Amino acid sequence: MVPEWSPDGWRPTYATPLEYLTRFSMQNALFDDDVRLEGVLVTGEESRLEGSITGGVSLVVSQKWLAPVAANDPHPTVEEIEQYFEKRGYEPLPDSFFGWFHEPFGILILDAKPDNFVKTPAGILPFDLLIVRCGADSC
Fold first, then answer.
1. Contact 139, 108 (CB under 8 A)
2. Domain range summary for the chain, segments of one domain joined by +
3. Cβ(60)–Cβ(22) under 8 Å?
4. Which of 26, 33, 58, 97 has the CB geometry, 3.0–4.6 Å to 131, for a possible disulfide?
5. pLDDT in the model for residue 7
6. Gap between the Cα atoms of 73 and 126, Å rounded
7. CA separation, residue 30 to residues 44, 65, 126 (Å)
8. 93 falls in which pLDDT band (50, 70, 90)?
């Protein structure tokens, strides 16, 4: 998935394989992560993922394990996520799905909800965010 503008505001939409890989490259650069492409699956089988297209290509990625400080409460609050992004120069993105925007860098992020963060001994760490770079002719 990647962010896309619609008449209803910013929403997630399907990504191409290149957009998917670019998203994880940005995840690594912006949040000191280590998402890696492990392989590619080509199948004609029916997808078990709701909303997915049957057949085609699936990219297999791995990511470092994010061990939570508290196993029974691994995610930060919405307020902690707000502080996390504001400290890094992001502003809330109106009309979006848990969206943030960093104007100087042209970075737009969606799906920044508590389920996509873990509170670790190293601090709050995000994973699986929908990230796109906005340029002069896009976004």
1. yes
2. 2-133
3. no
4. 26
5. 84
6. 15
7. 35, 18, 10
8. very high
The rounded distance, in Å, linking the Cα atoms of 35 and 12 is 20
Distance CA 27, CA 63 (A): 11
* pTM greater than the 0.85 cutoff: no
- Contact status, residue 107 vs residue 130, Cβ threshold 8 Å: no
Residue 2 amino acid letter: V
Q: What is the pLDDT of residues 38-72, one digit of tens each?
A: 998 887 777 666 656 666 777 889 988 889 999 99
Closest by Cα among 122, 100, 103 to 111: 100
Strands 100-102 and 107-110: antiparallel
Q: Which structure tokens are listed for 61?
A: 């990625």
